[in-house]
Structure formats: structure tokens, C-alpha cells
Design goal:
By secondary structure, the protein is mainly α. It has one domain. The protein contains six helices and no strands.
Length: 186
């Protein structure tokens, strides 16, 4: 039942997307979640190292993770549209499967990091000293060692996924159509 519903939704999305979106929509969007994730990791590290009174890096890192997750979902949906325009070989289909799997791992790691940050920030339990409990014993704030490790894992996985995506384009010509042009004669 759930798979039938999912296939119906996916089929409807593909029909709508093919009418309104260009075949190159995925490559146009993919840079946003990558950039946001790398910046989030930088802010995550700075939040652990630099303690500002307003917790600037902590807050910016949190919202960059949220934006990276949202941009990743939109980019994945665009990838479903873009793959409809491609002629697949067994090799490129296998690479696509790896690319999709790695992208799912990225999303999962981002969700886990956001969850770890929220648990550290909003947990209602108190330690014996009366201070708010927090993940990894930081005592305050959202950024923790655990969330930083999860974001690092997401950065590594998105780099691997991007590498596989780049290999599909540059080594196997997925989505690339030959274009010839002549230089103007002088």
C-alpha cells in the first residue's frame, strides 16, 4: 500500500517536472546543499572553539544545517526529474544507485546532527549540579562534539556523492550532449 502510494506520488512528480523543469535542473541546484553543508561544518567547529556571548556560530551553523537539508531535498527531487532525460547503461545505472545511496546517507547524517543539537539544547533533564543536561557534557548550547562528528560524516559523504556524480558526467557523459561550434575566423 505504501509503495503504491509512493510510486503514484513519484509518477505525478515526474509528469509535472518534465513539463516545467529543464533537464539540467539537478546540476543547477546541487551546489547549494554542498556549500551550505561545508559552511555548517565550519560554523560547527567555530562554535566549539570560539565562545561568543550571543553564540553566533552556533546559531548560524544550526540554520545552515536546516537550509542544507531543505536544499538537499529539493535537489534530490530535481535529480529524479533530470534522470528521466538520460540514456542509462548498466555502468551508469550502478553509479546512479551509489550516488543516490550516498545522498540518502548525507540526509540521514544531517537529520541526526540536527537532532543531537536539539537534544543538547532543549533537554529537560537536570544533572546533579542543577545545570541543564546536554549531549556530550557541554553543559550549554547546541553545538556538541557529537553533532560536529555527524556533520563531518555528512561532509565526507557529500564529497563522495559529488565525486560519483561528477564521474557520471565527466567520465561517462551522463546528461551531456555533444555540441560543436566553430571559432570565428579572423
Amino acid at each position: 500500500m505504501i509503495f503504491r502510494l509512493w510510486n503514484s506520488i513519484l509518477g505525478l512528480w515526474i509528469q509535472i517536472g518534465e513539463k516545467f523543469l529543464p533537464p539540467t535542473v539537478h546540476p543547477m541546484l546541487v551546489h547549494f546543499p554542498i556549500a551550505c553543508l561545508y559552511l555548517a561544518f565550519g560554523c560547527e567547529v567555530l562554535a566549539l572553539v570560539v565562545r561568543t556571548p550571543d553564540r553566533f556560530f552556533d546559531r548560524v551553523g544550526f540554520w545552515l544545517l536546516i537550509i542544507a537539508l531543505c536544499a538537499g531535498v529539493v535537489t534530490a527531487a530535481a535529480g529524479v526529474i533530470s534522470e528521466q532525460y538520460v540514456h542509462w547503461t548498466p555502468t551508469t545505472a550502478a553509479l546512479l544507485s551509489i550516488h543516490q545511496r550516498d545522498a540518502i546517507y548525507v540526509g540521514l547524517l544531517i537529520v541526526l546532527s540536527i537532532t543531537a543539537r536539539c537534544v543538547a539544547r532543549y533537554s529537560g533533564r537536570r544533572s546533579s549540579g542543577g545545570r541543564s543536561w546536554s549531549l556530550a557534557g557541554t553543559g550549554h548550547g547546541r553545538a556538541t562534539i557529537v553533532s560536529a562528528i555527524l556533520v563531518l560524516g555528512a561532509v565526507i559523504m557529500i564529497t563522495v556523492a559529488a565525486r560519483v556524480g561528477g564521474d557520471m558526467v565527466y567520465h561517462y557523459g551522463v546528461g551531456v550532449h555533444g555540441v560543436s561550434f566553430q571559432l570565428p575566423s579572423q
